[in-house]
Design a protein that fits this description.
This protein has no helices and 11 strands. It is mainly beta and 119 residues long.
Length: 119
């Protein structure tokens, strides 16, 4: 079982920046893709950004040009650099991993980290 632990959330003014981290703990044989999702109060969880094992990145239209997803395989960590933050970016941000472990395809979610953008 792979465990994901997010960090880096907090409160920031509009136009500010935050960097989220997701530490990956556990044994796996193949990491297929990882991503960041978010859920605002009263709304469904939505995709923010994903990155495949081959390095292909995908972003929600609402964050293109402002957010950057990256991974450090040596540190087993996924990042989300968020710039030019807007109040509508306020949400709980979750890390997700799609992987194979012991021959089984599975996915894991982190516990979430709160991001609040407000003046």
């Amino acid at each position: 079982q792979v465990q994901l632990v997010e960090s880096g959330g907090g409160s920031v003014q509009p136009g500010g920046s935050l960097k989220l981290s997701c530490a990956i703990n556990g044994r796996l044989s193949i990491m297929h893709a990882m991503g960041w999702y978010r859920q605002a109060p009263g709304k469904q969880r939505e995709l923010v950004a994903t990155i495949t094992s081959g390095g292909r990145m995908n972003y929600a239209d609402s964050v293109k040009g402002r957010f950057t997803i990256a991974r450090d395989n040596a540190k087993s960590t996924l990042y989300l650099q968020m710039n030019s933050l807007k109040p509508e970016d306020t949400a709980v941000y979750y890390c997700n991993a799609d992987y194979t472990s012991l021959g089984n395809r599975a996915d894991s979610w982190g516990q979430g980290t709160q991001v609040t953008v407000s003046s």
